[in-house]
Amino acid sequence: MAKKVICLFDVDGTLTDPRQSIKPQVEKFLLGTVKKEFDLAVVGGSDLNKLKEQLGGKSMFEKYKYVFAENGLIAFKDGKQLRTETLQSMIGEEQLQDFINFCLKYISELHLPFKRGTFIEFRSGMLNISPVGRNCTQEERIQFYEYDLENQIRQKFIQAIKKEFPDLAFTYSIGGQISFDVFPIGWDKTYCLRHIQGYEEIHFFGDKTAEGGNDHEIYESDLTVGHRVTSPEDTVKQLKILMALTKERKEREQQSLPFPMQCA
Ligand SMILES: [Mg+2]
């Protein structure tokens, strides 16, 4: 009996170039070849709209068995949305409000070369906090990023939060140019694994697998077989190897010879 296998992909840097749409040849290989052998799933850190832009709009739900946005805090199986937790249900309204109030106060006392709007964005499973404000222009983004490199605005902000809330089980992650993310410990990409049921092997493909990268925890997880990739082209290459190994294993099994699964 063949093993039931699912391939789970990070999006940026793994299936697509960062923030770009999937290339037709990559998608064709996934849907035309890989999908005949394995179920397919995607997990991104960004919101659902961004994923749709990159993976072909609504039809994304027909292409992939599971679609996970925001690390799996927004989850779909066969196009149907699954129940997940929220930040407020996790830490409680009272504490959440203390946290937000502290951040707003801190920002209000911060003097920067300039400030714009939307300082805190509330997502399903995380807060995105931007000292300069998310609706700055592309040019202002870069200016703030350079200012931040010199002055450690985001680093110092996170230190101040940790000092104020030493017991709060939050992870702080500086990504991009103007903001940092705050989310409960464990609500990294491994969060999505709780939704995946009925497989003997989950093969995860990601590009940011080193420590501190947003694929690190799920790549290292005991629940997955991890594949480190460098680009969408490398993902295709590694999938070809996995498919060849699987074919070989099937043939061996038919001859009832033991053959340990190797991971590329
Ligand atoms: Mg990535």
Automatic annotation (TrEMBL):
A GO term from the CC aspect: cytosol
Active-site positions on this chain: 10 (nucleophile), 12 (proton donor/acceptor)
Cofactor section: Mg(2+)
Gene3D superfamilies: 3.30.1240.20, HAD superfamily/HAD-like
Protein's pathway: Nucleotide-sugar biosynthesis; GDP-alpha-D-mannose biosynthesis; alpha-D-mannose 1-phosphate from D-fructose 6-phosphate: step 2/2
Keyword Hydrolase annotated: no
Top-rank lineage group of the source organism: Eukaryota
Residues where alpha-D-mannose 1-phosphate binds: 19, 123, 134, 141, 179, 181
InterPro entries, per the entry: HAD-like_sf, HAD-SF_hydro_IIB, HAD_sf, PMM, PMM_cap
Sequence similarity: Belongs to the eukaryotic PMM family.
Subunit structure as annotated in this protein's UniProt entry: Homodimer.
The protein's name in its UniProt record: Phosphomannomutase
